[in-house]
Amino acid sequence: MIRIVLFAATRPNLVKVAALYQAFIADPAFDVQVVYANQHYDEEMSGNLYRQLGLPAKHIRLLLPKLPGPAQMTALTKQFRQFLESTRPDWVLVTGDVNATLAAAQAARQAGVSLAHVEAGLRSFDTNMPEEHNRIDTDALADVHFVSESSGVGHLLREGVPPDNIHLVGNVMIDTLRRMLPAALAMPWPDSLPAAPAPVLSGQYFTATLHRPSNVDHPETLRRLLDLLRHLTTLVPVIFPVHPRTAHRLKEHHLEHELNAVQGLYPTSPLGYLEFVRLMHDSALVITDSGGIQEESTWLGIPCLTLRANTERPVTIEVGTNVLAGEANETRIMEYARAALAGHWKKGEIPPLWDGLAATRIANILKSESLKPVTPKPVTLKPETLKPVTLKPETLKPYRLPTNPHIDPSDVSLRST
Fold first, then answer.
1. How far is residue 371's CA from residue 300's CA, in Å, rounded to a whole number?
2. Which helix (H) or strand (E) holds 5?
3. Contacts of residue 242, Cβ cutoff 8 Å, sequence gap at least 6
4. Other CB atoms within 10 Å distance of the CB of residue 70
5. Do domains 2-177+355-396 and 193-268+283-351 have the same CATH topology?
6. Straight-line distance from the first to the last Cα atom of the chain, in angstroms, rounded to the nearest whole number
7. pLDDT-based confidence at 363, cuts 50/70/90?
8. Alpha-carbon distance 222 to 226, whole Å?
9. pLDDT tens-digit map of 250-282
10. Which of 127, 169, 124, 164 is nearest to 144 (CA)?
């Protein structure tokens, strides 16, 4: 029997782990265990989600001490390494790019346990993002790389990963979305929102989510985004589930009153997974800085406007319904919003292999003869080992958008048919 440990630490990664868990428990060749380290100190963000996704009640929970970031991740690495040394699984699977993902990867390497990275190879080429360093470092530690879109294969090859260790399998987040969509569409209007106005009930509303440090940590940037939301409410109501990080920054920067004073803006506490999928599914436009929501909106066929200058998920632009706002000003963003309301958004398609079977492919690959786990020798990571991987200049070529990736309402060729 192949013993698997699935590690997660944030809400998006729980969604991915849920797909993997379902695939592994369906195959008697595997013994699977879930380890959860709650990087977000918020029951609403993760506890409710855990129950909705059908993850096992019996799981290992690592309690993270409330320490500064680096010290907290050092403590997590130590806890998880001790767990792995005592249980000796065949494989550890980590997902995504948060700090805890890298900490778990380091623990697996120190414990001498084979490591697989799910969502490997994604690159934004923005070194100001901690997530970018986490992606590169986790991929450098991984024995096997499971890739969600073709851009990731090219990035890994350029970074020197052997081709036999790279597997384009599809998107496990979409596995969960596809499985849970019927239940999501049956959900009632969230109780945490006030009585919904008529435009919301008819699907004429926008959904907004913001949590990236570049958008919410600086008071002037956050104030500008509140002004943007205020202008968007002149078109339709805007539903705004507030991430715990964003709520903290609003309070820290004394902007809570400004938020609550906006007519037509409906801030709410974090929604459950099913409630949020329902909200997103019925939106005229999703405005976000989240990588996962870029993917989910593409699969659902919902217009998505990403308030970032780059993305590590270019397939959502090249194939899907996503558009980068980049350096667009408020006037331009309002044009995008009007285009979405008028139905003048690019149609988009579902990317290759986003068919709900990614986790099953991963299970089959790990079961195959060519990937029988060979436990590597335990290693002691020296400090310099933990530094971000330095890539050759040719590796750092950024993803370049098409000549005109933006939605122009006057361009008939971009209108949906």
1. 34
2. strand 2-8
3. 250, 267, 268, 269, 270
4. 10
5. yes
6. 51
7. very high
8. 6
9. 999 999 999 999 999 999 988 889 999 999 999
10. 164
Domain ranges of the chain: 2-177+355-396, 193-268+283-351
Please give the residue that has the higher pLDDT: either 41 or 116.
116
CA–CA separation, 178 vs 348, rounded Å?
17
Q: Which of the four pLDDT bands, split at 50, 70 and 90, describes residue 411?
A: very low
Which residues make Cβ contacts (< 8 Å) with residue 198, sequence separation at least 6? none
Structure tokens of 7?
């590690």
Q: Give pLDDT tens digits for 218-250.
A: 999 999 999 999 999 999 999 999 999 999 999
- How far is residue 190's CA from residue 203's CA, in Å, rounded to a whole number? 14
Of 314, 320, 309, 310, the C-alpha closest to 286 is: 320
User: Which CATH code fits 193-268+283-351?
Assistant: 3.40.50.2000
The identity of residue 6, as a single letter, is L
DSSP 132-182: HHHHHHHHHH-SEEEESSHHHHHHHHHTT--GGGEEE---HHHHHHHHHHH
Place of tokens 């331009």: 332
Query: Residue 346 is encoded by which pair of tokens?
Result: 């690019």
Q: List, for residues 195-204, the tens digit of each pLDDT value.
A: 655 556 566 8
Query: What are the C-alpha distances in Å from 357 to residues 38, 177, 354?
Result: 27, 11, 7
Tokens of 176: 């969960």
Task: Considering the candidates 59, 133, 211, 231, report the single residue annotated as catalytic.
Answer: 211
Cα 135 to Cα 117: distance, rounded to the nearest angstrom: 9
Angle, CA of 175, 17 and 316, to the nearest 5°: 45
Tokens 């780059």 correspond to 310
Confidence of residue 5 (pLDDT cuts 50, 70, 90): very high
* Residues 11, 165 contacting (CB under 8 angstroms): no
pLDDT, averaged across the chain: 86
Read off the pLDDT band of 399 (50, 70, 90). very low
Q: Under CATH, which architecture does the 2-177+355-396 domain have? A: 3-Layer(aba) Sandwich (3.40)
Known catalytic residue: 211? yes
pLDDT exceeds 60 at position 97 = yes
Contact call for residues 40 and 13 (beta carbons, < 8 A)? no
Whole-prediction pTM: 0.86
